[in-house]
Amino acid sequence: MKNKHAQTIYYGTLNHGNWTIYIAATDQGLCFVGSPNKAINKLQIWTDKNRPNARLIEDDEKVSNYVHQTIEYLHGKRKTFDIPLDLKGTSFQKAVWKELQNIPYGEVVSYSDIAEKIGRPNAVRAVGTANGANPVMMVVPCHRVISKSGSLTGFRGGLEMKKALLAMEESNKTRV
């Protein structure tokens, strides 16, 4: 009989200030960073939608390096991540997510900029949708994307979190 669980996803929590964030990874790499202070069912809903038949197992040890690097980032001590990622999405989403990783720490670009860089200048709204579908916010820095007018727009973690992340990066970008 074949195992009905195609994959195991390990998860744990990251606590930072007023934020509690679920972080999840497979044996291949980080696959999910949750929005602050959302219930575990948000991770279950994401898993059911994006990784059908996966089994969720709480295992702080398995996700400890991901949590550690994210906490270093949130404390302004890390500007880049060197952890494996396990991202599943369409080829368009993957192109957007790859380009997001090229945005330098402490800088912002527009959705139009991303659309241009991936060779799809008319796909600005689709870029926004792919940005919103990024399952590993902060690590793939979708918070560094703003509207062409310079205003902050949607962010899965909420606009307060987006403002906080951008302000933290701005104040730490000259730090070595």
From TrEMBL:
This enzyme catalyzes only one turnover and therefore is not strictly catalytic. According to one definition, an enzyme is a biocatalyst that acts repeatedly and over many reaction cycles. Coiled coil: none annotated. Belongs to the MGMT family. SUPFAM superfamilies: Methylated DNA-protein cysteine methyltransferase domain, Methylated DNA-protein cysteine methyltransferase, C-terminal domain. Keywords: Cytoplasm, DNA damage, DNA repair, Methyltransferase, Transferase. Residues 91-170 form the Methylated-DNA-[protein]-cysteine S-methyltransferase DNA binding domain. Its main location: cytoplasm. This is Methylated-DNA--protein-cysteine methyltransferase. Residues 9-87 form the Methylguanine DNA methyltransferase ribonuclease-like domain. It catalyses: a 4-O-methyl-thymidine in DNA + L-cysteinyl-[protein] = a thymidine in DNA + S-methyl-L-cysteinyl-[protein]; a 6-O-methyl-2'-deoxyguanosine in DNA + L-cysteinyl-[protein] = S-methyl-L-cysteinyl-[protein] + a 2'-deoxyguanosine in DNA. The keyword Cytoplasm applies. Its EC number is 2.1.1.63. The active site is at C142 (nucleophile). Involved in the cellular defense against the biological effects of O6-methylguanine (O6-MeG) and O4-methylthymine (O4-MeT) in DNA. Repairs the methylated nucleobase in DNA by stoichiometrically transferring the methyl group to a cysteine residue in the enzyme. This is a suicide reaction: the enzyme is irreversibly inactivated. It is found in: Cytoplasm. InterPro entries: MethylDNA_cys_MeTrfase_AS, MethylDNA_cys_MeTrfase_DNA-bd, MethylDNA_cys_MeTrfase_DNAb, MethylG_MeTrfase_N, MGMT, MGMT_N_sf, WH-like_DNA-bd_sf. It comes from Gracilibacillus caseinilyticus.
